[in-house]
Amino acid sequence: MSARDHIPDETGRYRTFAAFYPFYLTEHVNRVSRRLHVVGTSLVIAALVAGFLVDWRFFVAAPLVGYGFAWVGHFVFEKNRPATFKYPFYSLAGDFRLWFEVVTGRRPF
């Protein structure tokens, strides 16, 4: 990986998730917003498990609760636009990586 991979390319887009994730973290500096993301991602995981074990309708609820919590964090606390609109897959991966870092104690809640 070159140093250039950590900045957007000439079109203003990130080429790799490794380059995107530091940007993702700058969009999640507010403690309440980060906590809302972790709670929302936890509920997504619970809804997916419930979708398999209880009722398929929990699959429908999963993105609603996940994005609901995250977008409140962005619009109310961060005062920024969620990266999901420009980087849907990197943003989703960032949510799960942030969640993993928090639950394993690598990043403060």
Summarize the structure.
By secondary structure, this protein is mainly α. The chain has helices spanning 17-26, 31-53, 57-78, 88-103.
Describe this structure in words.
- The protein is mostly helical.
- It has one domain (19-103).
- The protein has four helices and no strands.
- The chain has helices at 17-26, 31-53, 57-78, 88-103.
- Helix 1 (17-26) packs across helix 4, helix 2 runs antiparallel to helix 3 and helix 2 (31-53) packs across helix 4 (88-103).
- It is globular.
- The chain starts with 16 loop residues before the first helix and ends in a 6-residue tail after the last helix.
- The model has no long low-confidence stretch (mean pLDDT 92).
The whole-angstrom Rg is 15 Å
Annotation, overall tally of beta strands: 0
Enumerate the spans where pLDDT stays under 50 for 5 or more consecutive residues. none
Instruction: Give the integer mean of the pLDDT values.
Output: 92
Structural class: mainly alpha
Order of helices and strands: HHHH
Count structural domains: 1
Q: Per DSSP, what share of the residues sits in E-state strands of 2 or more residues? A: under 5%
Into which percent range does the helicity of residues fall? 55-70%
**Shape designation:** globular
Biggest pleated sheet: none
Note the total helix count: 4
Q: Distance between termini?
A: 30 Å
